[in-house]
């Protein structure tokens, strides 16, 4: 009854948080280390040796997780996909999946947590500091554990997850990333391979550059020359375009040239800064304002809220440059563009600098741990040990092959020891590579990524990874897996949403000329009044604690 009352109070608290719109989930209190056995409910132990599969069990697990949108073209539930069926076969564990509707995961997660009836595992942003400063649970993983929403995993990993345990022993950096400041493991992580950390950057029409006798731009001045030529000589109405999702998604391209960022970042002295109030951010805004006024930036960039708008601009020759993803962007656009014009070619451009030969200050670079797709075991689970053994399969050699490549002989074959997608997957007339792969693998989630996996179908994509990787982003990107205390998380929720909204509103107005750049100081003053210094201090304290783990 005590546990039920505790959960009931959590439900009420969450309802208040949701109602006041202060709950912030992903786009992203120190207590004594706890033992799993203190929170776990009775488990039904599988009658198989730890680390050996398939397990022998009559129990069914329940999992709440997002479904890949590509997969919904084929089946409505992961259990119905070839991947889901094969995972059940290889692990011996039947799983009932519940998927939130696309675009509604945040709201449905809130309702799930408040329901007093949780599945065995939940895949969500349990440990990441998102753009608004929150995790998927108010107060972060420590608070979720204290509220008995999820279990601490230290004992369970030690006893029942030998594959993940081995990885953590071998990789101290990864081990440091996936626990709280007091050393508590809280979720099974999505682990990216080293060559999977950079996957987004500036790209440009190389066929247009060749036609105009221009080189791939590397500096701000060279970009200006190129975009001007695209407008005047190619008739491009939106020489540079980008998708807009709460902000102009350019991953600090152009802004980074001024040694700042359109987000929180770490400066050369290891201090957390909020780029949008840096003095040099004014220079970056002035540049974008000038380009916008001259018609070099898409006049309607703030309306490009989905990929279709961006696709139309690039495929209609209205735009010649953007910032986009490696496979879902460059590869897809190359496929479509070449059908229309065999000469169509997109190539990566370096993150631009002010001066020739400089190394870019910041760009897109993620970390090997992706908190947004991590799975936690809930306090309601009656099968915590079984859940942990099931989750651990994804970190085994055979399990990693399934999660990354699918079913041998169907979706991939071994070619000189290298897993290679079959023609059935690569050359389907109706569906693209990513759609086909989604049936047989899990594109995102808690598993060990394989460096041999690649969706690249063009040399330009392979080159892009190297080109976009030539930045100092590793030094300057703030980690997304910091774990503020429960009290700090409340403060972040209190300030960050309003600050982020105001910053983006003003960013658009400055770029479009609806607010004079002379008002930048007033804008900075307003953000300071909104509490940005308190937010920076929380991140700095969290970052300092992280570095001491």
Automatic annotation (TrEMBL):
Gene3D superfamilies for this protein: Periplasmic binding protein-like II (3.40.190.10)
Region (Disordered): 31-51
Compositionally skewed regions (Low complexity) per UniProt: 37-48
PROSITE patterns assigned: PROKAR_LIPOPROTEIN
Signal peptide stretch: 1-25
Keywords: Signal
Coiled coil start-end: none
PANTHER family linked to this entry: ARABINOSE-BINDING PROTEIN-RELATED, POLYGALACTURONAN_RHAMNOGALACTURONAN-BINDING PROTEIN YTCQ
Record's protein name: ABC transporter substrate-binding protein
Organism for this UniProt entry: Paenibacillus pectinilyticus
